[in-house]
Amino acid sequence: MKHVITIMLYLSAQFICAQTAVEQTVHDKLSPAVSAKINRYVGEKFNASYENRILAQDVHTLVHPFTVRDEYRCWQSEFWGKWFTSAVLAYRYNPTPILADKLKEAVEELITTQTPDGYIGNYAPESRLGAWDIWGRKYCLLGLIAYYDLTKDPVALEAAAKQADCLIRELAEKNVKIVRMGNHRGMAASSVLEPICQLYVRTGDKKYLDFAEEIVREWETPDGPQLISKADIPVGKRFPKPERNNWYGWEQGQKAYEMMSCYEGLLELYRLTGKEDYKKAAGQTWQSIMDTELNIAGSGSAMEAWFSGKGLQTTPIEHYQETCVTVTWLKFNQQLLRLTGEAKYADAIEQTFYNALLGSMRPDGSDWAKYTPLYGQRLKGSEQCGMGLNCCNASGPRGLFSIPLTAVMTAEKGIYINFYMDGSYELMTPAKRTVTLLQKTDYPLSGQIDIQLNLQKEEKMDISLRIPSWSEKSTVTVNGSLVENVVPGEYIILSRTWKNNDKISIEFEMRGKIHTMYTNPTYTAITRGPIVLARDERLKGAALEAILTPVTNENKYIDLTLNDHSDAGIWMVFGAKFIPESYAEYGAEPVETELCDYASAGNAIAAYPFFKVWMPQLYDPRK
Fold it and tell me: Per residue in 410-428, pLDDT tens?
């Protein structure tokens, strides 16, 4: 019987959508692809994480704390849900019997720990609701609901409902506000809003919608994080900075990961209610993060909190760019992209994915860095809570596997191509026919992408191509005919009757761009397309500590020459000309120095090479 269930799961997973009991007020503009198969470098990263992190995880280790239930302050209970939701995304990308068995085992083993009152967690009875207890319950809910969506197993949904009922009942019986529970002005605990909204959609039980609205009401009380009323305040300045010894306590209202998790839940509630204030607050917060926190690699935070860090990114920063923050920023953008179909969210995802996210993953996919600086080393994170892994090991693949089925998505009038990755994508057309879209490209190594449509029958629809904001000059052709009005930072909508084997060709401008931070001293960094480039002590050229000024051409770009460095396990290496510091009056001649992609910089299996993104420039008192 187990074998039969596994095969059914294996065959059907890619075609299952969430079974809903209520109609949402607001529908997403974009829906995931039916399936995807991605090749080349990015495909190898998916495969590495699948084999060496997802399948390698011992399920019993994750479930064990739920059988002990003696905790009072730690967060062991989040690891099951983080790994499990990662594994469900991985399974949707690559459904195999071995992962189906692992998912089934993980759910069944977790459900056996549920107490008669519905509790699934690792906290002692007298410590329930405190510290990270509700946070851990949230991750259990997310995992159980994800499994229900995948399999339609009613036992998983029933267990999730009992878990939610237990939480609602305990809060009422103890007459406490959820925003006073746990850490970070209640953001950790009240981020349970996301699965509570999901549970309402799948059960139709209005008590979950009522609870969701109560959570948001409590946000706006003096005790709450005021995530709506303070949405127009920069995320790093919403509350006074807590004392050093209470940095991770209740007073910390700038905790980045938890804050964005709450906004993910608020967007789920917006879909249910249509209340524009919810969407507006999420959008304002997104813009604040972009304007005041996000660094050149597409992430941020220090000591896991927002700190107005955008302008400080050239300095060495303690506990910089936590991977959990990177993943949640990416997921927040995925929510907004699905909801709105706006190109700026896809641009942000691409920046984060190729740089901060891939940079936090070890080359073989087995491990994820806890913090990833822009200068220094990518060091291994320590394990947490006696679990043999840490939060970022468990969370990293959640960001990674959110990409495949959102690279190409469907909309009411056709197809959106968000990300350019060599592979095949199966989708449904507006007429409900299957279409396979093939991308042939080595992007972002080059800017050339060739797309072919395999259609069952010719059909009139839109195909929307994202034109990245960094590509100032882009060329698009359809069956050899040039497309006009291609605008950076927007989708170009190709509306026509499409036929089998129609072809689209795209060429993006992949020039080396100089970015300058006018601090003291001034710093420069270099990007090429979506890729941040970095110096690495393994590469040829001047010493890492040398002061180098980029040599620019007549158009103020830096010329980059692709060099082969595959033997060092580095994805991209470019040679470029720089003027070194000189003590001679007439200056120095240019020297060639190599740079590599940020994700590869300092990222090695057996060593921790030093690297840097931002390069200090000589101070010139004449300027």
Answer: 999 999 999 999 999 999 9
